[in-house]
Structures are given as structure tokens and as C-alpha cells.
Amino acid sequence: MNETPNTAPTLAPNASQSPAEVDVVDAAAVVETASESTAEAPAVEVAEIAEAAEGVASDAAPEAAAAKDISPAAVAAKLKELFPALFVGGGIKPLKLRVQADIQERAPGVFTKAQLSAFLRRHTGGTGYLIALSKAKHRFDLDGQPAGDLSDEHRAAAVEELNRRRGLQQERLELEQQRQALEQTQARNRAGLLHDFERTTLTLPNFCVLKGVTPEELPGLLDLARREAAERAAQRPQFQAPRESRPGQAPHGERGRPDERRGRGHGPKGGNQGGPRGAQKTGPRR
After folding, report:
1. What is the pLDDT of residues 98-135, one digit of tens each?
2. What does the CA dihedral 233, 234, 239, 244 come to, rounded to 10 degrees?
3. pLDDT value for 64
4. 183 and 151 within one domain
5. Structural domain ending residue among the three candidates 130, 162, 194
6. pTM higher than 0.70 for the full model?
7. Separation CA 286–CA 273 (nearest Å)
8. Minimal CA–CA distance to 195: which of 226, 235, 230, 219?
9. Domain match, 146 and 208 both
10. Number of folded domains in the chain?
11. Is 95 exposed, middle or buried (0-12, 13-18, 19+ CB in 10 A)?
């Protein structure tokens, strides 16, 4: 009688891989063998649970035979409903190793192996999970209770991956700032080109040579400059007309001082109604 060897699937990434070589999401998978003799092997553990990518050994709980395909988000919602102490309360917690087997045991037939693996890759690869992993000292089980210490290797791998992501984010930010600065410079150049074109007395060939553009490029640049000018004009705040004054009331801004509105103090003191200030009155003194 022929016997077929009982082999467990091995889909975990190579243990020699560095965090920088792993994809931002797939960097979440940690290298752990299914063997009981290997405890927390040093690995790229951004999303450190090996069974998240490879499943558990062949003695794991049976998966649902006719379960429908559901998204990782739907799996997350169901896990929050079943195990709120781990997936809801108290913020993000580092998961217990081989937590997928625990889920299959506590909720048999609810999820397939593929569904849990997809969820765990996404969950343990998130930046929030990595931050929690870099600061925690323990892992937690499905009841939200500590379930083993977090190894220094896994914590260091999470910190390294976070630093890599921050570097990539900073690079993208700098590239975006450079792109915006270039677009603003080009827009200013087109506005200046349109301004000079509308006022030039040069012939078209001479104008193009002066501006460093070809006669074929010029119409398109001018059209774009006109559209940009119209957009800027539309974005400017509209001038508000002064409010209309009521009958018998001076227009807004021209009401004068209070003493003038009451009819007192007309003219300079002493009754001098005209002439330069300090001028002497005519006529003999009494």
C-alpha cells in the first residue's frame, strides 16, 4: 500500500530577506516555520505572523467548505464582532503567534484559510500595527490577554520598516513639492509670454526667437496662458459695492464726525469761514 507523505504548505518569505526588499504590504509577513521546535526565528516581521501568509499545519481546524468569498474588510468586521477584546478595545495590539489556528478553533467554519490569511496580511502590514509592534512588550490572544513576550528581533524589524516607510513618504513629499514649484514657474512663464505677445511690435519669427519658442509651439502656449488667466480671475474675490444708505442718512463712510452731524462747530473756531488760517481781520480796531 502506497503512503503519501503529509506535508504542510510553506508560503512564508525567505528568512534571509531584509525588510527593504519586501513589499510595503507583504513586508508584514514574518518567517516562522510550522515546526514546534523553532521558536520566534529572527525574520522580517513587519506583519509577523507566518501563518497569516502560509496558514497553519495540516492539523489545524477544518475550514468552511462552501464559505463565500468575502473581503478582508468584511473579515475584519466579523472578527471585531467575535473577538472585540483583541480587535476593538484598547487600540491595536500585537497578535499572538499562530493566532490563525486559534481563530479557526474558536470560530470553526466561519472563515477559510485564504480569507484569514488575506486579512492578517493586511492587518499586520498596516502602519498602525507596526507602531504598536514597535512599542509593545507582549503579544495578545483572542481574549485580549498577554500571550507571550514580543521578541527584540520582531520589534526591531517593525522599527526598521517604519523608518523605511517614513523615508519613502518624505521622498514622495519632496517630489510633489518640486512638481508644484515647477508647474508654478511654468505658469508664470506662460503668463509673461502672453503679456509680452499682446504688447510686442516684433514680427512673429523675431518674437519666437526672442522667447525661445517655435512658431508651432506658440499658439498652444498662448491658449493655455489665457485659460490660466481666466481661472485666476474667477478665483479672485469679487468687489462688493457699498451699501445703500437710508433716506436722510449720509452714505456709508461719509457721515462725518458726531459734532458735524449735530450741526455744531461748522467752520474753524472764531467764525472764520474762509481764507488761510491765521489771516488777520480787516477794519479798524475798537
Report:
1. 999 999 999 999 999 999 999 999 999 999 999 999 99
2. 150
3. 42
4. no
5. 162
6. no
7. 22
8. 226
9. no
10. 2
11. buried
Amino acid at 246: R
- 80 is a domain residue: yes
Whole-number Å distance between alpha carbons of 94 and 115: 19
Distance CA 138, CA 113 (A): 25
Residue 7 forms part of a structural domain: no
Q: Is residue 31 part of a domain?
A: yes
Range of the domain at 196: 175-235
Asked whether 29 and 121 are in contact (CB, 8 A), the reply is yes
Rounded Cα gap, residues 120 and 49, in angstroms: 8
Residues 91 and 29 occupy one common structural domain: yes
Q: What one-character-per-residue DSSP string does 129-169 give?
A: HHHHHHH-SEEE-TTS-EEEEPPHHHHHHHHHHHHHHHHHH
User: And the C-alpha cell for 227?
Assistant: 485659460
The span from the CA of 216 to the CA of 212, in Å, is 12
Residue 170 has pLDDT above 90, yes or no: yes
Q: Are residues 73 and 148 in the same domain?
A: yes
Give me 172's grid cell. Answer: 514622495
By the 10 Å C-beta count (0-12 exposed, 13-18 middle, 19+ buried), 76 is classed as middle
